[in-house]
Structures are given as structure tokens and as C-alpha cells.
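Progress against Task 2.4 (sequence-to-structure conversion) is shown through the following example record, which the project officer requested during the mid-term review.
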Amino acid sequence: MNILFEGDTGQALCERCQALVAMHYTRRDVPFSDGLGVARDILVGVCDGCDTVVAIPPQSTPAIREARKQQLKSIEARLPAVYLDVLDAAMQAVSSEAGAHLRKLFLAHYFHWLVQARQGAGLQPGHEAFVQALDAQRHQRGLPASGATRRLSMKVNAHMAEDFLTLLGQTRMSQTELLKAVIARIQMDVLEARDPQVIETLQRLTRVAG
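C-alpha cells generated for the chain above:
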């Protein structure tokens, strides 16, 4: 692998210029796309025309991941209330004594499993099917859509943060959309398919967590 230096040049597609442009490598503080933090003093390729970052060399990736992991101390999102209702219903189906504190345990397990099994690509279509099913149920019962939301907030350790960041990269979803899609997957496995292996694994985790 060639090591790039400040001042090296090349070409890349620039989204702002909508063209293949000349670029040069320099060091920049680069904000994350979701606005939650900054990777500082990393080598990036910058468009000669508009000064926008257009390329990130492989040698900068570890520093970006470490910066992201250090800044991701918690996962927070405001979700439509039905998503937390669904998550809690899945927890109740696994254990009648499950409490809201186990939400993080279930999500952490799924983050890790989805990364290890390389199942991130299936989250988006699964979530779309979930949304369509909810809409169909409301329509069948003659109920209007609800605007109610609830806040999900979890302190995370380095391992959970790493899995979450990996899924964000694989799916290119926002934090909120990824959480919604993972909850939809939990609903499918536990409440719809009633997958015995999944339920047994979650029951073991629940017993260990107390």
C-alpha cells in the first residue's frame, strides 16, 4: 500500500462540483456526517475547486474510527413510541420479568450478531416491511397514525460502540433509522417468527443480567 503525504495529488468525484476533479491531500479536522463529533488532524483529499473533502485514504481510517469510538459515549434517539412498545413487547415475550433496563442488552446483542453474521444489508428491507405491516394494521382498524414519540438513551461501552459504528458504516443509515431497523428485526425474530434459537439466547442473556 502506498503511503500518502501532505501535498500528494490525485483525482476524485466531488459531490458538490458534480464532476471528476483534481484534488490534493492535506490535514483537516473533519466533522462526522451526523454532526456528532469531529475527527481531528487527519489526512484527507480536498477538491482543488471547492475545498470540500472528497477522499479519505485507508491510512486515515483507524484514526477516524478511534475518534468516533471515543466520542460515542451514549446512543440517543427520539423514536416513534410504537418502536419502544415493540421492543418492550419482545422483551416481555422472552421473559415475564424483563424490565426497561434490558433494552440495552437486547440491542447490544443484536448489534454484535448483525455485525458478526454480516446481516446489516437486510435491515432496510426488513424495516420497510415492518412499517408497511404497522400501516396495514392501523388501516384495518380504522386508526389514525400517531405522532407520539419516546426517547431512547443508552450509555455504551467500547464494544457496543464499535458494533454500532460498524453497522452505521455498513448500512449508511442515520443513528435513528438504524435503531428503528434493528428493533424491527427483533420484532420479526421474537414476535413474528418466534425463532427458538434467538429466544433461547435472549433468555440466557436475561438470566445472566438478572
